[in-house]
Task: inverse folding
């Protein structure tokens, strides 16, 4: 069994004027409590509690704040808060009710304050119906939920965790390791070795990488032009449209990656461990911002949950030098061009090789050599799954996390 966590999105359907007013009151009280606790630089839950206890919020929102503010001040070292932080509730805060006989089948109970709750009909992502049914039946557990408004419509993001059976009982030695290399030239590259140990059936999503680069360039160019004209923010609708186009492309590519794995006997998808990259490597300011803003975490999260839903295991490996080592001899080489790897070992038969395919094979080989890791992160605050919403590059992780919860039509 594999434990899988996923963020479910529910669109609140036409709350009346009274309920809209109560939702706004909850949001405003939460924002004030968050700002005051942040301004007080609360570093512990006890300190945060002393601030938020006086606000007219449910205990579920207060408890979520007590956990969140110390993360902002100590883990993310945020200098300031930005707008549109979603209202967070701990896992006990929400209730689901299913009325299959009704035109709108799902209803959610949202806490307003201590003894006052709002029942509101909700429309889920149709692809996530099975997850909601599992929550309703007790076959999945609910985690933290987040409430926010976008373009006049209210949404809930609900974290759910369930156990999924693996498709095959094959041992690690019997599995076919498929290396997954995520980059900016080729968005994703996959490859595995055949029964004779030779790299076989590589697949590259190079055109998709080009499309994403063009969309990102469009966004940044427009942002810079607006800034030179004295405008601080790009219109939200423009930014959302750009990132939603990338989001849709990511979903298609990650689905095709899993389909590739399904075509292989006893597959295991092998990814680079993003936690190791964040915790143990200093890439400098440019690369750190790139890791936060570029879609590495989102692609990881989508591949992971789509694979696990199909019963395909996913492992992670140490990413050090996977793009710089020769998969044939292990010598550290170089890339004279983005798509070309050159081995510096004169005795090696390979010479030059497609760089992304070389990286994918190295990633697969790390698993075959027993270097795999079963975790993405240990504290649940900065894992690939938590980075599942696509964001524009941000100056701080706290800023990125905020937008991760407010962009896109459906949660990952």
Result:
């Amino acid at each position: 069994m594999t434990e899988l966590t996923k963020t479910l999105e529910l669109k609140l359907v036409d709350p009346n004027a009274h309920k809209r007013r109560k939702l706004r009151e909850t949001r405003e009280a939460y924002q004030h409590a968050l700002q005051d606790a942040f301004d007080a630089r609360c570093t512990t839950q006890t300190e945060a509690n002393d601030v938020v206890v006086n606000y007219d919020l449910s205990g579920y929102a207060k408890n979520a704040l007590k956990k969140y503010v110390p993360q902002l001040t100590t883990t993310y070292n945020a200098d300031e808060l930005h707008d549109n932080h979603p209202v967070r509730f701990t896992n006990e805060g929400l209730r689901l009710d299913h009325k299959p006989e009704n035109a709108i089948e799902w209803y959610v109970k949202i806490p307003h304050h201590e003894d006052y709750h709002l029942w509101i009909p909700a429309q889920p992502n149709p692809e996530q119906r099975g997850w909601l049914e599992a929550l309703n039946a007790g076959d999945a557990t609910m985690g933290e939920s987040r409430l926010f408004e976008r373009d006049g419509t209210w949404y809930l993001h609900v974290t759910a965790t369930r156990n999924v059976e693996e498709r095959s009982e094959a041992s690690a030695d019997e599995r076919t390791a498929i290396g997954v290399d995520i980059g900016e030239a080729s968005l994703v590259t996959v490859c595995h070795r055949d029964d004779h140990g030779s790299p076989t059936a590589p697949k590259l999503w190079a055109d998709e990488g080009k499309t994403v680069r063009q969309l990102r360039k469009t966004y940044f160019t427009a942002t810079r032009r607006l800034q030179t004209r004295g405008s601080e923010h790009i219109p939200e609708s423009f930014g959302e449209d750009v990132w939603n186009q990338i989001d849709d492309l990511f979903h298609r590519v990650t689905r095709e990656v899993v389909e590739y794995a399904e075509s292989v006997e006893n597959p295991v998808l092998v990814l680079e461990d993003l936690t190791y990259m964040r915790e143990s490597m200093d890439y400098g300011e440019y690369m750190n911002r790139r890791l936060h803003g570029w879609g590495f975490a989102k692609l990881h999260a989508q591949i992971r949950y789509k694979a696990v839903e199909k019963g395909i295991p996913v492992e992670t490996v140490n990413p050090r030098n996977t793009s710089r080592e020769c998969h044939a001899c292990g010598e550290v080489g170089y890339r004279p061009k983005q798509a070309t790897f050159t081995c510096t070992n004169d005795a090696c038969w390979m010479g030059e090789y497609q760089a992304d395919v070389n990286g994918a094979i190295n990633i697969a080989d790390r698993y075959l050599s027993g270097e795999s890791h079963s975790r993405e992160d240990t504290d649940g605050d900065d894992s690939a799954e938590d980075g599942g919403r696509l964001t524009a590059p941000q100056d701080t992780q706290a800023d990125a996390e905020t937008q991760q919860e407010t962009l896109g039509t459906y949660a990952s």
Notes: The CA atoms of residues 223 and 234 lie 6 Å apart. The chain has two domains: 2-164, 174-373. The first helix runs from residue 17 to 39.
